[in-house]
Amino acid sequence: MAVHKLVLDDAFDEVLYTLIAIHCTLEDYRLAYLLNKNLGIALARKESDLDYNEGNVSHSIYDWEDEKQLITWSLVSNICKTETIQKIDYKSLFDTQEKITKTYYLLPEYKTVNYFLKIESEFSFSKEKHILNDVLKIPQIVTAYSIDSSQLKSKENLIFS
Questions:
Q1: Which sign does the torsion angle of CA 110, 116, 121, 125 carry?
Q2: What single DSSP character describes residue 38?
Q3: Which of 98, 113, 147, 159 could disulfide-link 19, Cβ–Cβ 3.0 to 4.6 Å?
Q4: What stretches of 2-150 adopt beta strand conformation (E)?
Q5: pTM of the entire structure?
Q6: How do residues 38-62 score in pLDDT, each as one tens digit?
Q7: Domain map (residue ranges) of the chain
């Protein structure tokens, strides 16, 4: 009896994407508006944020699917700050509660980055450079640069679906 072997090397290729780190002090909706205006895209806020840590941490996300060019654009915040109230056992007449602010990061290895722009598609390097130059033309953005996704330790956090 003949033995048949199926080779599925090409069937499960990793989805290729470009990741751009953005440093700015803008609110997420304002940055999405400026990116839409300067890049000619239509980012819109998703109905639900990215939830991590059993719903205690949420990162805002905007996305747009360009059906003509088969490109998915996603803008996601890297920083999430949560406030919790902790009771303190002081033996005094005054306040026994203390607010504690904890900061969580989507990609902990890039703690200084405010937002990530993820573009899912195969681009030539010139196209990626063109997009990066258009992002850098926005005066409110301090700096932006491409990140090599193969070097990321927490790349599973970039799966948005």
A1: negative
A2: H
A3: 147
A4: 17-24, 44-45, 50-52, 57-59, 61-66, 71-77, 79-87, 97-105, 115-120, 141-147
A5: 0.81
A6: 999 999 999 988 887 666 788 999 9
A7: 17-79+106-156
Sole residue written with tokens 């060019």: 69
CB 132 within 8 A of CB 39: no
What CATH number does the domain located at 17-79+106-156 have? 3.30.160
Tokens, residue 85: 């109230």
One-letter amino acid identity for 5?
Answer: K
Looking only at the bridges linking them, the beta strands covering 97-105 and 79-87 are antiparallel
Where would I find the H helices in the chain? 28-39, 125-136
Residues recorded for the chain:
161
Contact 121, 73 (CB under 8 A): no
Q: Alpha-carbon distance 155 to 68, whole Å?
A: 27
Rounded to 10°, the helix 125-136/28-39 angle is: 120
